[in-house]
Design goal:
The protein starts with 12 loop residues before the first strand and ends in a 5-residue tail after the last helix. The strands form three sheets. Strands 3-4-5-8-9-10-11 form a seven-stranded parallel beta sheet. It has a single domain, classed as Alpha-Beta Barrel (TIM Barrel), CATH 3.20.20. Helix 1 packs across helix 2. It has 288 residues and is of the alpha/beta class. The radius of gyration is 18 Å and the shape is globular. The longest helix has 15 residues.
Amino acid sequence: MAIEATDAAAAGTVALGGDLQVRRLGFGAMRLTGDGIWGAPEDPEMAKSVLRRAVELGVDFIDTADSYGPHVSEELIAEALHPYPGGLVIATKGGLTRSGPGQWEPDCRPEHLREACEGSLRRLRLERIDLYQLHMVDPNVPLEESIGALVGLRDEGKIAHIGLSNVRLEQLARAREIVPVVSVQNRYSIEFRDSDPVLDECEREEIAFIPWFPLGSGGLTSEGPIARIAQAHDASPFQVAIAWLLARSPVMLPIPGTSSLDHLEENVAAAGLRLAQEEFEELSTLAD
């Protein structure tokens, strides 16, 4: 059976702290930049059209970072969507620096995180960022110092909620001893499930889990169980991958990104795909 025409509301909602609810299908704005997540896209107007269409389709959570471009993704979001419609949450991240295409270097020193956050505020044209995430744990900076810098920014009213990205279970526990953590953003997909323990902890503690690279790679081909289940639903393998994520946990918040209007609409339509229990269980055996 085909997926009925739908928008992001069909995915349900998840909490980001006690005062913020967003739909469980967001948009990741990393790939709106140039090759290697570096520089401007070839067609900036198309990138802005994708952002506007995402909001039209009911997406109310957009994920970005100061390092995407760098700065380009945040600038495009503001150019396309500011003044922001009510209820739209723009989440951004700090703690990675760039020296070239495909190059990512950690810098989670408190002074850098402050500079990064203040830059994001200017580019996004915001007085306060609803969700600010530590992009990774810097091996050269104690986690407690990095988290302490975010707490200071929160206390100054520059950010509302704090999240983490690319963290292990024990790092999440250490951060939560200092401050409430409302989200974790780790790599996770139908095929890559190293963060299952972190996801399970997030579910127990009602922390939103934002999978990056949510469509994975390799297994979304024209053969195999994903393709077979997709055919049974008159859906694409990518839609099945998103539907599996949404079924995996009530705190899951997938953010599939794209620079294509067609792919955006396909991804959002996956909010209306419901897998049978036996399909979900079969797909759950596919992890590496």
